[in-house]
Amino acid sequence: xxxxxxxxxxxxxVGLSTAVCIAESLPVCSVTLLAEKFSxxxxxxxxxxxxxxAPFPDIPLERQRRWFxxxxxxxxxxxxxxxxxxxxxxxxxxxQIFKEVPATKEPYWxxxxxxxxxxxxxxxKRFPDHKFGQAFTTVKCECSSYLPWLEERFRKAGGxxxxxxxxxxxxxxDGFDLVVNCSGLGSKTLVGDAGVYPVRGQVLQxxxxxxxxxxxxxxxxxxxxPGVHSVTIGGTRQEGDWRLHVDEGDSTSILERCGRxxxxxxxxxxxxxxxxxxxxxxxxxxxxxxxxxxxxTGMPVVHNYGHGGWGVTIAWGTALDALGLVRQCLKEMPRAxx
Length: 338
Hints:
It is found in: Peroxisome matrix. By secondary structure, the protein is an alpha/beta fold. It has one domain (4-337): D-Amino Acid Oxidase, subunit A, domain 2 (D-Amino Acid Oxidase, Chain A, domain 2, 2-Layer Sandwich), CATH 3.30.9.10. The chain has 8 helices and 15 strands. It has helices spanning 13-25, 61-79, 84-87, 121-124, 143-156, 187-190, 248-261, 311-331, and strands at 4-9, 29-35, 89-98, 114-118, 132-141, 160-163, 178-181, 197-207, 214-217, 223-226, 231-234, 238-239, 269-280, 285-291, 299-305. Strands 3, 4, 5, 8, 9, 10, 11, 12 and 13 form a 9-stranded mixed beta sheet that branches. Strands 6-2-1-7-15-14 form a 6-stranded mixed beta sheet, covered by helices on one side. Helix 2 crosses helix 8. The longest helix is centred in the last third of the chain and has 21 residues, at 311-331. It starts with a strand and ends in a 7-residue tail after the last helix.
């Protein structure tokens, strides 16, 4: 038994989750994680990491529910375990509020989070510009802690990590039997996916320990997410914008908008500002194909990218799907390899 050499590309929350699932579930595989950037320098590191979702247009809702449920249950188990402080995974309660009553009052995940209900008129009085709201408890996953925790878990399962830029799949033909592509925005050039585009997000970290409940405007542009050490406030959703520098105009707008929802933020000290590019696509790509490489009949490639702003929310669920696709690839490999 020579073992199957698997390479996972990308060390954000999707790539690391996928690498851990494969390394822990398939001992026949020797898993290498290749990435240009690791924590704390990934896009995932700046994510607010609160778990809920908007539906993708072309993916069966049942599959999306499975992704959400698998991820939520995975993170909830961590939040309720001794690992919670090290992994940076906590329970978070709060409100999602809407200026107009949404067409769907109960999202597809409403029965998968904890205690979902419609807000009362008395609760909504606090937000006079909003007509409808949802209250629930979910999970918040702080990737600056969670990613290093996953890295350690990956190493314990025998995984190898290597910092390296990969410009094309052709570079991997000699050393690996199977490629798992979790390169996010990198897939635009790596596999020529023109459907991948950035959605620029800017957030501020503020010191406001008195805040314990999240508040999110239903349009997704204004939010307040209390965390373990600070409160994340945001944000922006600027499609096709590749700028990675902090925009002071955006910072001013964020402070003003969030201050309207939570006036006490005017007393909060700004600790830092951050910008990241969400790796967006009309729908996430979780599928497999065979790619022709020089001297090879075809390299099996499993794709898992394009999660946009919902990476933390569905990463574990799509990682389990990708694991299933890897299993299918293994079944088709020559017995000598296995």
